[in-house]
Write a sequence for this structure.
């Protein structure tokens, strides 16, 4: 009897869940990286329903798109910088049909045609930002913090936050030693590891979920933070400042791409065009705190946002700034080994 | 002695509920950060209800948890009974497999199941979630029921058999009533685990069927959003209503 | 075999269902994991041939050994605390009259319907430097300045205990439920003191529940990686963290698979050793 009931249940569930409405856009994005208002307005304007699913690291997004292959019905994803080239090279993406995209000419020329995708055949920039130093100015004394090197300072013992991101932490370590943050030289990586072990007693926590939180909780006074997080954090904690370290910030660019198994690439193109509208791009930048690459949107921004050096750095701030690039698998394994050691505190 | 045990119970319950109370209080907090009190407000509830995806995910989750708990209780109870009563080849292997499910870290279970589903070409959605959830709930049900059975007087079922009851009849009339409390405990465990699971669901769910824990996970990761507190409070209220309802039905059926 | 099916259709049906489910959804996926562990890491397809044991060799790295032992230690402490709190708790629970008992059991589980992640974050609100506990202690004059509670191993253990306590209580409760009053009374009538009754009657009779509880707590305690992520400052405190990193970040699937297999085997070994020692003790006693 139970078996019958079970079979019935299974049968029921099998039939109950396959409705492939063509007018759905499956958007796969970072968590809380798109204001609800934008989605609602897109739905109202086009009648296409947006299903918003999220991921919390490039690795997770990449693994899923790659693994799921056929059954992944995502129409649009937003990988960071070098993941675009990685995914492009592995044939995971559909080319963008530029005739269906309006507003591409509005984009900051500095942020298009990067070597991750030289002709933007596969990607359209969404937002960009930097990883620099967050400082709780109310809680620290003495010299102001100006460089990554300052994190090693005795006075910050047990008060430092690092992002929970292998590449970023090593990037910082490598920059302090004067190397490129994209080094693939095992010697240099090891040196960076040695340098970082000296920092470990100072490290309170690794946080990549919301690096502003350790500051707000009062757990950390100084450390790595993304600019958008610093802007958001300042809203609730006036003393939180964003500092561009003199060794150079880590810069990144998140771009829209269309995965190769997209079911509704038409709607994906529509959505990209929608987001590129100056008014929408401005709304996103104001809401999320990261910088939009849409130049004409910047004019629509309030002074408070456009004048915020944390969101929109001056050219001097970006001296020594470096984008992350794909370092290849061999180097990645070297990083991974030292990263495990670092985080295990050995 | 009685007094002591009562106050001990009360103390542990108090500790268990402190975080919940904090959650409820802060869900009415007007301030965004959640560390200081900014006045009473219902705005987090409002923004929660305006989030249709969230409401949909809530229903999906409830339905999934209900079905997964029920299926895993049925199969788990049968497994426990089989392990307890029958002699058959490979019993140790069966036992071992259940341990493996419990012992393998969730992430491994998640990936191995995903591998299986991909190999079979099963579309990720409700079915894959149900299969995965039943699988990880199963050992918990089995253990709970086995613990109950191991203290059980063996002569009872034998007597029933001697009196001519078939195996099925005996199970229905003698064993099921005995293990009923364990079944309920197992069902509750299953429901709880399913509502709670993040890791396995992350891997085996598709965009067509999003469930609550994943939504919550992505929300809490970007800092404690007060909407999360509101959602937690609602879940709590919902389960308390369920609880009172079941108590009411029980007491009525007794009369 | 045919005969037995005819004789006992119910038994056959149960066995087929149970075996079918476990073979399909436990054995098959786990075979995939075993398979993955002996393959070679491949950056673009995750795993590929040829077969080899490199992943297992990598495990003997002292780094991972240390992480493993530390994880076991944290899990053991968590289990011990759960047992110390849960045992008297389950006993007290089984003494309450029947009607309230059901209610109390529900109350034990109800918090868990609010999602463990949300509750872990609520713990964070309490333990943080600006958090409620510190503010309370300071305003009471117990502390002068906030104590560092969050992002410590202690915080992780508090989180684990908080999340796993019911898994200890439920099986214990079900054995206490079975503990018949007349047995205890008999023991008392025969002149046994409270301690003797506890040692000779209660403990042996509740041992199955204790074992079930220990297994339900110890094993998940090693794998709940989000607790160190949230309360421990994302350090690699549990084996679960390392395995997760291997699968997601480093994308070294064979190594992740090998690590999880070794974890599973170690656990099985512990269990086996425990049973063996129990059996021997039982024989000596008899």
């Amino acid at each position: 009897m139970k078996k019958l009931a079970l079979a019935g249940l299974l049968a029921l569930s099998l039939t109950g869940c396959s409705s492939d409405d063509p007018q759905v856009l499956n958007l796969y994005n970072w968590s809380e990286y798109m204001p609800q208002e934008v989605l609602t307005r897109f739905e109202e304007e086009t009648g296409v329903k947006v299903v918003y699913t999220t991921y919390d690291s490039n690795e997770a997004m990449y693994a899923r798109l790659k693994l799921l292959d056929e059954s992944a019905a995502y129409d649009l994803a937003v990988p960071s910088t070098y993941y675009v080239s990685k995914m492009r090279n592995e044939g995971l993406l559909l080319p963008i049909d530029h005739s269906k995209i309006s507003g591409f000419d509005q984009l900051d020329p500095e942020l298009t045609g990067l070597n991750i995708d030289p002709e933007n055949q596969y990607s359209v920039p969404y937002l960009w930002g930097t990883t620099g130093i967050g400082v709780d100015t109310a809680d620290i004394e003495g010299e102001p913090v100006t460089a990554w090197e300052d994190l090693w300072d005795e006075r910050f013992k047990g008060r430092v936050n690092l992002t929970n991101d292998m590449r970023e932490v090593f990037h910082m370590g490598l920059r302090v030693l004067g190397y490129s943050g994209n080094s693939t030289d095992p010697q240099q990586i090891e040196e960076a590891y040695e340098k970082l072990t000296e920092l470990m007693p100072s490290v309170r926590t690794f946080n990549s979920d919301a690096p502003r939180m350790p500051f707000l909780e009062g757990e950390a006074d100084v450390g790595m933070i993304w600019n958008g997080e610093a802007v958001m954090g300042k809203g609730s904690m006036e003393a939180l400042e964003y500092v561009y370290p003199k060794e150079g910030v880590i810069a990144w660019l998140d771009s829209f791409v269309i995965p190769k198994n997209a079911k509704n690439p038409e709607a994906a193109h529509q959505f990209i065009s929608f987001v590129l509208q100056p008014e929408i791009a401005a709304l996103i930048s104001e809401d999320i705190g990261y910088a939009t690459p849409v130049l004409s949107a910047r004019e629509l921004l309030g002074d408070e946002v456009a004048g915020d050096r944390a969101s929109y750095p001056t050219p001097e701030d970006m001296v020594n700034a470096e984008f992350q690039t794909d370092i290849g698998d061999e180097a990645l394994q070297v990083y991974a080994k030292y990263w495990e050691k670092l985080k295990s505190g050995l | 002695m009685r007094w002591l045990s009562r106050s001990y119970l009360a103390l542990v319950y108090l500790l268990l509920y402190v975080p919940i109370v904090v959650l409820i209080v802060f869900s009415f907090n007007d301030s965004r950060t959640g560390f200081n009190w900014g006045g009473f407000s219902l705005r987090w509830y409002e923004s929660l209800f305006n989030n249709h995806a969230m409401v949909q995910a809530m229903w999906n989750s409830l339905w999934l948890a209900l079905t997964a708990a029920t299926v895993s209780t049925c199969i788990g109870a049968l497994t426990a009974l089989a392990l307890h009563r029958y002699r058959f080849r490979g019993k140790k292997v069966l036992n071992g497999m259940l341990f493996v499910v419990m012992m393998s870290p969730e992430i491994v279970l998640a990936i191995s199941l995903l591998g299986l589903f991909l190999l079979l070409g099963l579309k990720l959605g409700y079915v894959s979630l149900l299969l995965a959830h039943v699988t990880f709930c199963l050992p918990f049900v089995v253990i709970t029921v086995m613990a109950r059975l191991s203290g059980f007087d063996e002569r009872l079922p034998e007597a029933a058999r001697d009196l001519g009851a078939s195996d099925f009849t005996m199970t229905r009339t003698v064993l099921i009533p005995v293990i009923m409390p364990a079944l309920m405990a197992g069902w509750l465990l299953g429901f709880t685990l399913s509502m709670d699971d993040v890791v396995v669901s992350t891997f085996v769910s598709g965009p067509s069927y999003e469930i609550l824990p994943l939504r919550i996970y992505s929300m809490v990761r970007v800092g404690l959003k007060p909407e999360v507190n509101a959602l937690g409070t609602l879940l709590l209220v919902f389960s308390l209503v369920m609880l009172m309802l079941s108590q009411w039905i029980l007491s009525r059926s007794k009369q | 075999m045919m005969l037995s099916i005819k004789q006992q259709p119910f038994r056959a049906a149960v066995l087929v269902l149970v075996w079918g489910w476990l073979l399909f959804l436990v054995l098959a996926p786990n075979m995939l994991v075993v398979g993955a562990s002996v393959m070679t890491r491949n950056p673009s397809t995750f795993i590929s041939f040829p077969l080899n044991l490199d992943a297992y060799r990598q495990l003997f790295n002292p780094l991972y050994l240390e992480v493993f032992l530390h994880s076991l230690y944290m899990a053991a402490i968590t289990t011990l605390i759960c047992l110390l709190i849960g045992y008297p708790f389950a006993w007290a629970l089984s003494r309450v009259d029947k009607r309230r008992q059901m209610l109390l059991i529900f109350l034990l589980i109800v918090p868990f319907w609010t999602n463990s992640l949300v509750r872990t974050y609520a713990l964070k609100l309490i333990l943080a430097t600006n958090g409620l506990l510190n503010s309370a202690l300071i305003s009471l004059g117990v502390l002068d300045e906030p104590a560092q509670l969050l992002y410590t191993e202690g915080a992780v253990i508090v989180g684990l205990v908080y999340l796993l306590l019911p898994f200890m209580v439920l099986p214990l409760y079900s054995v206490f439920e079975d503990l018949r009053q007349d047995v205890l009374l008999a023991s008392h009538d025969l002149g046994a003191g409270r301690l003797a009754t506890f040692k000779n009657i209660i403990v042996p009779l509740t041992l199955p529940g204790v074992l079930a509880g220990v297994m339900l707590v110890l094993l998940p305690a090693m794998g709940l990686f989000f607790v160190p992520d949230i309360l421990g400052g994302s350090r690699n405190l549990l084996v679960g963290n390392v395995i997760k990193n291997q699968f997601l970040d480093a994308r070294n699937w064979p190594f992740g698979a090998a690590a999880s297999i070794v974890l599973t085997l170690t656990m099985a070994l512990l269990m086996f050793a425990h049973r063996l020692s129990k059996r021997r003790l039982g024989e000596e006693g008899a």
